[in-house]
């Protein structure tokens, strides 16, 4: 079976110098993308069925759903609850502000950072402690610092959920402990994680395999529970979770060859299965993308007319633009260049631009340059070429000849041939 091939549409635009550009042609062409080993035919595979209760995989760039099972089913979500806790911490507080750690009576199985009541840590360190080792005592400190009480903070969490249109999400605590009324869905978790990954500070935190908290009573080194960060270099976030009701949960982001995917796997039976099933889901998603190079370096992307010349002037791409796209995406090359040019033009002079978009989203631009030099037009060129010039010269010769003949005619005097009469 042939691999899926993205359709590339080339829109050619031209303009006269000094005048607005207008579209003059639309040409559809198909580019056969170079395949990576094992990628051929991958797009025709069916999405995997995972050993989990629910899952969702999306493209972070366009939000396209690539694979899903029960993405809107409400489920316990364990410590992925802390995504909202971190969201409020980063939006309501200064990362360098210090918060006082409250008393927190942790159960033996809870994840904590060993914070002591009365310690003061920066908001950033508390978010690091929540995101990496999933520290419940850090989440309690954030809740107290933002809203004063856990009850008020939970109300803030639910207001934020409504504001972010997480319609199937509700919070009962800032930690993720199993409790009636604390639930979300794979779809809402992906939406929230996508919102948070737009924050550079958050992206940096969740991408760290380990970190040192330096703002408390003593330095503490914490390790990320997202073990995929170590086993898969393409994974760069975001949050794990586990309780008896939720099972094993992972929201994971990854990027390969410029393609960013975001997955949520809920209700896996073990940590190992959680990681393995997430990898299967991400692997399937990345297999849907084929490499294409709609603009190739040194290739002709357009031609323009040259005034006073019969042949067109090819325009070459100064650099290539490569991308990866799914077969359901629309790749367009928009070429903007003059309709007509006039010498002198140097070889390599920039005369236009090729713009590549995927579903209307800008991918890149490449300058278009003259493939050859064009000399300045001569007087003969300007009057219409050699034939017209020869006719003009011939006409001039004829006119000059007629004028010379006229000048050579003998002059005559008097009105008639009568004799000269003299009187005596």
Descriptive overview:
It is a single chain. With 424 residues, the protein is of the alpha+beta class. The protein has 2 domains: 1-46 and 291-402, Sandwich (Peptidoglycan synthesis regulatory factor (PBP3), Domain 2), CATH 2.60.410.10; 52-268, Beta-lactamase, CATH 3.40.710.10. The protein is built from 10 helices and 19 strands. The chain has an 8-stranded mixed sheet, with no helix packed on it. Strands 4-3-11-10-9 form a 5-stranded antiparallel sheet, with helices on both faces. A two-stranded antiparallel sheet has the order 5-6.
Task: Looking at this protein, list some descriptive labels.
single chain; 424 residues; alpha+beta; Peptidoglycan synthesis regulatory factor (PBP3), Domain 2; Beta-lactamase; 8-stranded mixed beta sheet; 5-stranded antiparallel beta sheet; 10 helices; 27% helix; disordered N terminus; disordered C terminus
